[in-house]
Amino acid sequence: MNKLSEVEIGSAIAQLSGWAIVDDKLQKNFKFKDFVEAFGFISKVAIVADKMGHHPELFNVYNKIRIDLTTHDVNGISNLDFELAQKIDKLL
Question: Which GO MF terms does the UniProt record name (predicted)?
Answer without folding.
Answer: 4-alpha-hydroxytetrahydrobiopterin dehydratase activity
